[in-house]
Amino acid sequence: MILNALLSPEFFNAALRATTPILFATLASAVASKSGITNMALEGIMLFSALFGVIFSAAFQSAFLGLLVTMILGGFIGFILAFFVLKLKTDEILAAIAINLIATGGTVFMLLTVSGDRGVSSSIKSLQLPRVTLPIIENIPFVGEIISNQNVLTYLSLIMVVIVHILLYKTPLGLRIRAVGENKDAAESVGISSRKVQYTALIISGVLASIGGFFLSGGYMSNFTKDMSAGRGFIALAASTMGGNTPLGGFLVSLLFGAAQAFANIMQMGASIPYEIVQMLPYITTLVGLGIYSYSLMKKRQRLSGK
């Protein structure tokens, strides 16, 4: 039964849906990493954005306006991280951990303050972004069942892979971001302001991560729940690293983790395995993937050094 489920179009459809928030965060990580900063605050940004999405889509009675405001706030959190790291010279890892910890308790407190709900936004009538049926493609056997009828943000995530690739490798801003990340002193010697470039990169990173967070409560689900980002920000960091901090590489690795999440969902329904073990599958996949990636890097260094 599990094998049949894995080979079904429904599984691939679910895998693509589960990939969406991870892919947005992976792209966010890639942009920040190319500028020379590791954005470990992705988890906190996604969690804040999931809550903001619910609050503002309900306030405006428009999911698209809720997404727009959430993107602005996500960019603002990226700016705050940049301010602490670049202006106040705070350690980037410690600053990101602080944001993540604030998000864990802060979202619950904000939800309680705004609605009186504890842990789940049951009383907030938020809206979801629509699913989109693709003409012609929906009629293609198997493929149509996978690709068509996905949330609009799923299609946007695929488009963003191309857009971020073009941004990083085909535009002057992307050239400056990569130059600063590779050698800050050399970039500044030719008149590039490394601080401005890194501010810009972290703001872009915050915006991308916020879209992934919004998808959790405005696409994947229809409400906010406590800690609903569930480690996806950290999984995205691993996906970005394994993908060489490139949009295309990160996309392929994100698909792997999305498939692991979809597989965990199937195991919950179709196998007599404890729930807690099934929930571990995406994180075990992350650890195994990082282990394989690290081993391949080690062997590559050994070959280059002739040992």
Structural class, from secondary structure content?
A: mainly alpha
- Overall 3D geometry? globular
Order of helices and strands: HHHHHEHEHHHHHHHH
Mean pLDDT: 89
CATH topology: ABC transporter involved in vitamin B12 uptake, BtuC
Task: Strand order, main sheet: write it out.
Answer: 1-2
- Number of folding domains? 1
Largest sheet: 2 strands, antiparallel
**Amino- and carboxy-terminal Cα gap:** 48 Å
Percent in strands = under 5%
Number of helices: 14
The CATH architecture would be Orthogonal Bundle
Question: Which percent range fits the helix content?
Answer: over 70%
- Radius of gyration from CA coordinates: 20 Å
Number of DSSP strand runs: 2
CATH classification, class level: Mainly Alpha
Instruction: List low-confidence stretches.
Output: none
Commentary on this structure:
This protein has 307 residues and is mainly alpha-helical. 76% of the residues lie in helices and 1% in strands. The chain is built from 14 helices and two strands; from the N terminus they run αααααβαβαααααααα. The longest helix has 27 residues, at 194-220. The model has no long low-confidence stretch (mean pLDDT 89).
